[in-house]
Design goal:
The complex is a heterodimer. In chain A, about 80% of the residues lie in helices and about 0% in strands. Chain A is mainly α. Chain A folds into two domains: about 45 residues; about 220 residues, MetI-like fold, CATH 1.10.3720.10. In chain A, helix 6 packs across helix 7 and helix 7 crosses helix 9. Chain B is α/β, with parallel strands linked by helices. Chain B has a domain of about 170 residues: 3-Layer(aba) Sandwich (Rossmann fold). In chain B, the strands form two sheets. A six-stranded mixed beta sheet of chain B has the order 6-7-8-3-9-10, with helices on both faces. In chain B, helix 5 runs parallel beside helix 6. At the A-B interface, helix 8 and helix 9 of A face helix 2 and helix 3 of B. The structure holds adenosine-5'-triphosphate and magnesium ion. The site of adenosine-5'-triphosphate has 11 residues of chain B, from helix 1.
Chain lengths: ~290, ~240
């Protein structure tokens, strides 16, 4: 602590000041170079596209500003449904995935059926395409007639998403659990903690920290796939766009939906990158987490 | 006085290699027993079997008047009566130093948080690390981490403390503080079984030296007997390496 203060009070040597000035000039230069090259690149791409023969037609059917504005309200309403589904699906997947991963760590003969069930589940749902799960859940569960009322399509869609994504996420959790060094488990057991408390207090917190970037990637993938619930008839952004397309004979509403999905993904993607970089930096500093 | 720990003809194999070949040992209350022996002689394995971290293949282990090698015994309950510290301190990196120390108090013994933290802070105070209570262990030096691991192991007042080469991963200048803490605990009457390669320290702190050779106790006695006048040629040969 006192070391830092001393350094602030000290005037750097001329050599160091020279080095700092040089570094500043270097970084200004590299910013200018990258801006210039980006502009050149963008202009080349732009000119190439607008000089293609079909550009005028594509522009009017995919990028029509008027259609864009008029489709926005309906697509936006649908998008809010996607957001709600995403929130529930993320929470459901985190909980269910963690549960499956935990089941797979259980030792002892009594738990064999649970272990086998969890293993079978992950194998099955990692192999099944989401779209098939959506149809099976969407038309299969209502067929069972659990309830008198109709189950809303978005609820069925959420269930299908949770079923599919939990299979991946539980594998990520399991990898994280296995990446926690055995000596940590040993140290916990040697203090008298049982299997479950060791898992909850020692192994899981470290495992989750290790796999957070991978989990966030899975959730980015999920935010795209929430658009698929439209196949069950839920009026989400994609379905909203479809309705608008049918009315205007113009594909711009799909672009509207696409833009909304990308805008949703961007912060999550940036957050994932930032967190991964932070973890990497900590690891390089020699800390264990 | 009855023994705190008694081993009767303990056998342990890993696959086809028999690592412990009939170990019998009795440790009285307040006694400090130091295990010495070449690398691979079975010191760590012995300590781990006492803490039920390794199941034994034959023989019996008594903690007080309880046969803890009985498979019906709850291992977690036994382990909470025995403290163990390993070569690599194995602090929990995601918990603060204080939470490391109070973990067993709170989650094994069910002591409430305030009382556990008071006890934890007293222990940290004692090793001069109270100001580090709220930071994560990676901020501590190796010696500080190992002393934290020791007080973590004794936080619940175990009847027996097992130490497995607790200084061999440390830089030489950090060893002193750790050994000083062990000496203090020994002086206070803690019952200790420790494996070490620090012969000078063993000589000073031990009530009894046990020389382990390929899974059997070849020789045991007071430090002056074993270090001063070893009876077995193998013991002499082993000790000669430390001169
Ligand atoms: N989990 C295990 N699986 C297989 N073999 C093991 C295992 N643990 C120990 N061994 C073997 O048992 C023997 C005794 O090992 P142990 O660690 O008890 O020796 P040690 O006296 O503590 O040695 P050191 O002084 O190097 O720590 C060694 O030959 C070792 O390879
Ligand atoms: Mg060892």
């Amino acid at each position: 602590m006192t070391g830092d203060l001393d350094q602030e009070a000290r005037r750097p040597s001329d050599i160091e000041l020279g080095r700092r000035a040089f570094r500043r000039r270097q970084s200004t230069r590299s910013v200018l170079v990258s801006v210039a090259s980006t502009i050149v690149f963008a202009v080349v791409v732009w000119l190439t596209i607008i000089n293609t023969p079909g550009w005028a037609r594509v522009q009017s059917t995919f990028f029509d500003p008027e259609v864009f504005v008029s489709a926005l309200p309906r697509v936006w309403d649908g998008f809010l449904l996607n957001l709600r589904v995403l929130v529930f699906a993320v929470i459901g997947t985190a909980v269910f995935g963690l549960l499956i991963a935990t089941l797979r760590t259980l030792r002892g003969a009594v738990f064999f059926p649970l272990r086998a069930l969890a293993a079978g589940y992950t194998d099955l749902f990692r192999g099944l395409p989401l779209i098939i799960v959506l149809y099976l859940v969407g038309y299969g569960i209502p067929g069972l007639r659990f309830t008198e009322e109709r189950i809303p399509a978005e609820v069925l869609g959420t269930i299908a998403l949770v079923l599919t994504y939990s299979a991946y996420v539980s594998e990520v959790f399991r990898a994280g659990i296995e990446a926690v060094h055995p000596s940590q488990r040993l140290a916990a057991r040697s203090l008298g903690l049982g299997h479950y408390k060791t898992l909850r207090l020692i192994v899981m917190p470290q495992a989750i920290r290790k796999v957070t970037p991978a989990l966030m990637n899975d959730f980015v993938a999920m935010q795209k796939d929430v658009g698929l619930i439209s196949v069950l008839g839920a009026v989400d952004a994609v379905r909203g766009a479809q309705i608008e397309v049918a009315a205007s004979f113009d594909y711009t509403p799909y672009v509207v939906a696409g833009v909304l999905f990308v805008l949703l993904a961007l912060p999550l993607i940036r957050l994932t990158d930032w967190y991964s970089a932070k973890l990497r930096a900590r690891e390089q500093m020699g800390s264990i987490v | 006085m009855s023994a705190v720990l008694r081993l009767e003809d303990v056998h342990k194999s890993f696959g086809r290699t028999e690592v412990l070949r009939g170990i019998s040992l009795e440790v009285a209350a307040h006694e400090v027993v130091v295990l010495i022996g070449a690398s691979g002689s079975g010191k760590s394995t012995l300590l781990r079997t006492i803490n039920l971290l390794e199941p034994i293949d034959d023989g019996r282990v008594w903690l007080g008047d309880r046969d803890i090698s009985d498979p019906r015994v709850r291992a977690d309950a036994v382990r909470s009566r025995i403290g163990i510290v390993f070569q690599h301190y194995n602090l929990f990196p995601h918990l603060s130093v204080l939470d490391n120390v109070t973990l067993a108090l709170r989650h094994v013994q069910g002591v409430d948080r305030a009382a556990a933290e008071q006890r934890g802070l007293e222990l940290l105070e004692r090793i001069g690390l109270a100001s580090f209570a709220r930071v994560f262990p990676d901020r501590l030096s190796g010696g500080q981490q190992q002393r934290t691991a020791i007080v973590r192991a004794i936080a619940t007042n175990p009847e027996l403390l097992l130490l497995d080469e607790i200084t061999s991963a440390l830089d030489p200048e950090l060893v002193g503080d750790v050994l000083a803490l062990v000496r203090e605990l020994a002086d206070e009457g803690t019952t200790i079984v420790m494996a070490t390669h620090e012969m000078a320290f063993a000589r000073e702190v031990a009530d009894r030296i046990v020389f382990l050779d390929s899974g059997v106790i070849l020789e045991q006695g007071s430090p002056s007997e074993v270090f001063g006048a070893p009876r077995e040629p193998r013991t002499r040969e082993f000790l000669a390496r430390f001169l």
